[in-house]
Amino acid sequence: MRASEHAYEVLRSDIVDWALAPGTVLAEVEQSSRLGISRTPVREALARLVADGLVEPQGGRGLVVSAVSGSIVVELFELREALERQAAALAAARREVSQFLQLQDEFREVSRLVVDEDPTRHAYYDLVARFDAAIDASVGNPYLVSALAGVRTHLARIRRLSHDKPQRLLDAAREHLLIVDAIVEGDAQLASDATHVHLHRSLQSILGFLEAADNKRPISAENRG
């Protein structure tokens, strides 16, 4: 793997996993030292992350991890709704049943992943990634898959805002199972509707988390009046 690709993967993973929180300054010198590579591949990786929208320039501070706000989340979900409902419907019409039967079994047993002692929930998120991959493989539309990939770059980070709560993870898994059941049955309308329910509940959960976080945030001196 090229050094720039390695730097991109590590930095992207750290941003998605919240090891690098919004507003974190990403200085080339610091990151090249941390990753054990020269500044040039780090610069290339940062440029890709800027293109992804995960990193943004901030006057006087250089590059920082991009912010997450309620308005950004809503905008992403507006796009996600259109893309994922269509993808689920197409997957139900064009699917290879065997791979979704396997996902059915795994989502039915998902509680063991949620109660796992691993706080990162990597096993759970790996299952969700395989669910997404199975739908992508079924839709037979590279343009739709490409558009979904761009949205998921941001959603992978945003979903951690609320989905690390065990109860929300269990609820989300049940919602995913309903989508898989509809795809197995070949019911495109039901797959689309089940996706709508999942996205609505996910959005409400994330917005609730952001509102609670804002309420806990201390009032700065300039905002005290």
Terminal Cα separation, in Å? 54 Å
Please give the number of β-strands: 2
Helix content: over 70%
Shape estimate: globular
- What fraction strand? under 5%
CATH superfamily of the largest domain: GntR ligand-binding domain-like
Low-confidence stretches: 218-225
CATH fold name of the largest domain: Four Helix Bundle (Hemerythrin (Met), subunit A)
Rg result: 19 Å
Mean pLDDT: 88
**Major sheet strand order:** 1-2
CATH class of the largest domain: Mainly Alpha
Total of helices: 11
Q: What is the H/E order?
A: HHHEEHHHHHHHH
Assign the CATH architecture of the largest domain.
Answer: Up-down Bundle
| Count of the separate structural domains | 2
Class from helix and strand fractions: mainly alpha
Please give the largest β-sheet: 2 strands, antiparallel
Can you characterise this structure?
The longest helix is centred in the last third of the chain and has 29 residues, at 188-216. The chain has two domains: 3-65, Arc Repressor Mutant, subunit A (Orthogonal Bundle), CATH 1.10.10; 70-214, Four Helix Bundle (Hemerythrin (Met), subunit A). It is built from eleven helices and two strands, in the order H-H-H-E-E-H-H-H-H-H-H-H-H. Helix 5 runs antiparallel to helix 10. The chain is mainly alpha-helical and 225 residues long. Strands 1-2 form a two-stranded antiparallel sheet. It has helices at 3-16, 28-35, 39-52, 70-94, 97-108, 111-114, 122-139, 142-158, 160-163, 166-185, 188-216, and strands at residues 55-58, 62-65. Residues 218-225 have low confidence and may be disordered.
